[in-house]
Amino acid sequence: MEPRSISGIYSECSGLPAPVSAEVTELQLGDRRGYTVTAEWSQSDLVRGSRLRFSRQWTLITDSNDHKTIKTVLPPGPCVPVSGELLSRSSPVRGLRAVVRETAGHQLLEIWDSHGLSKCLDLTALHAHGRVYDDVHFGCLSWSECETRLLYVAERNRSASAETHDGESGCGTDRSVYCEDWGEGLTNKSAPGLFVVNLQSGTVSALQGVPPHVSPAQALWAPGGQSVLFVGWWHEPFRLGLRFCSNRRSAIFKLDLDGHCECLSEENMSVSCPRLSPDGTTLVYLQGRVFGPHNQCRSLQEFDWESRRTSTLLDVVSRPQTGLFAGVYEALPSCCWSADSQRVVFSSANRNWRDVFVVDRRTKKVSCLSDNFLNVSRCYGSWKLLTVKRDLMVVCCSSPNTPPTLRVGFLPSPGDAVTWLTLQEPAVTFDLHWRVLDVTPTPEEDNIQYSGLDFGAVLVKPSRPLHAAKIPLVVFIHGGPHSQFPAEWNVTTAGLAKLGLAVLMVNYRGSTGFGQDSILSLIGQIGSQDVKDVQRAVLTVLQRDATLDPKRMAVIGGSHGGFLSCHLIGQYPDFYRACAARNPVINAATLLGTSDIVDWRYSSVGLQYSYDQIPSAEALATMLEKSPIIHAAQIRAPVLLMLGGRDRRVSPHQGLELYKVLKSRDSPVRLLWFPEDGHSLARVDTQADCFLNTVLWLQQHL
Fold first, then answer.
1. Would you please indicate which residues are annotated as catalytic (active-site) residues?
2. Is Translocase given among the entry's keywords (predicted)?
3. DSSP-assigned letters across all residues of 590-604
4. CATH architecture, domain 432-701
5. How far, in Å, are 39, 85, 366, 667 from residue 394 at the CA level?
6. What are phi and psi of 219, to 5 degrees?
7. Cys-Cys crosslink for 411: which of 391, 398, 578, 656, Cβ 3.0 to 4.6 Å?
8. Which is it for strands 578-582 and 548-558: parallel, antiparallel or unpaired?
9. pLDDT digits over 88-102, tens only?
10. Which tens digits make up the pLDDT trace of 567-620?
């Protein structure tokens, strides 16, 4: 197929919008009740080479006799572009809308009411702080109860954030002194502070009293409005990368406006996502271990505001029973409480799926709210909760052949099912066949310490093959390793399947959604257990599906997925005919000193980590033994490497190391270098370039 046709298919798949957030506002309409649902969407535009954001609003009217039955959905309004918005939040009582907007190099705080723009502050011109944080790890925008103050996180001015050590001046007084940042994807963030803007006076003040060894994040007002709550990330003795890492030491702090600060959560744990109940009596948050797996099953803790006692609402699930809840692996949405403050709603990985769950505080019982939860032929493989307000849930649903769909439904009484209503279907669906596979390791592949674990995969292929011959299979491996390929819409998978290829997305042992034991089983076993799992999944699907061509196999993946791709073509050199790897780990020993998550470099190979660790010959030898580079001499499959020049997680010199080895042996290899991109290769133009080159590489060698 010609490059233009390939790019056309990619444009069709990648240009479909997806809802990323939602807000619900209640309306009183006489004896009826109404709701407005405002969803914000993201859409890639290949012409601009950027992601557009727009909002769309629906009005729902309930039955006069049953306020939890939607009687009428009025036609939605037009799609309204959202230009430059970094953060936004509506006030709970008066319905004011606060927006932090980027324009012409300045960050503005806008307040909108029913008559239009009521106030605008140029935060940059006030010089009270640096840039406002808008990422998921630190960012927040919280209204006070009186709705006259807003709380947010921003970079402290250098003069205020100067760090000193042994009498030396810090980065506040000498710009040549090195300032740490928070790693991959957070390279412009170093010293966050808490700030409050008084909307009546138009002044911005920095809150004092944050402990000097932590960086504040995810802040919200505490009940009464005289104190704030925040997550404090430990940054001593030095900062470690935060992105994709839920194992960083942190705690929940309460900071009074007079500067008194106290810690509310357990010591030496990792916490995130503090969410206060509507009645102000209970705070829930996620909690997990420090170090070890970079992402793991977490417990849901609840803090009683009156008694000051903490208890576990949902514990870590070590090994889920068949068909039951598998644990919490994902962040809580900003609004996750039922109206009566008795239930918490969230979405999470669940084996090869993602589902919406609710836990009742009174019984601690967990129920799944997704349609056809136990039905393998269910329409949607992924359910992601965007928000819940006054018991009205807004979710994004998708599957490998169905792009993101916006749906709503009321939180039912315990034991009842949700009546889901679709607000916006995708513009197109795709004629693709998909199914979920459960895979069992052989006795020889079983993990003795964590025996009896299985894993899974998702197979996607054309419903009508383009040719009569058998279908080539592309093995697609997720990174992490502690992440997941749910049965959801995936642009790369859909594009490859539209081009006539079958795609197998493997959730090897160590993936999220299969219990904490599965995650722990991979520690010290990378390069072996995960490699064998992927190969076992491939052999299983070839045995079960006679339409697949075992002689035309390729493997692709990024980060740890690239690590496994390169392992597979080295350990099974006659099995795969092509490989495409994005920012792969090639030599864990040489990566040690360049990665922003040095702790994971030790933990992944089964070694304990401490901040004062000095590499030993034995540790480096262990890392090397588990790396793909030791199998490089056996590689026969042509290799396409795609590297981000600004990758802080996996240095691009990792890919270059393999490139030079293969070049020296006259093995087919091609390297694409993206100087402005990072680990995820997330720029719109980069993703399009990677897809096109991957397809051309597969066409050439399959």
1. 559, 647, 679
2. no
3. HHTTT-S-HHHHHHT
4. 3-Layer(aba) Sandwich (3.40)
5. 9, 21, 19, 51
6. -85, 155
7. 391
8. parallel
9. 999 988 999 999 999
10. 999 999 999 999 999 999 999 999 999 999 999 999 999 999 999 999 999 999
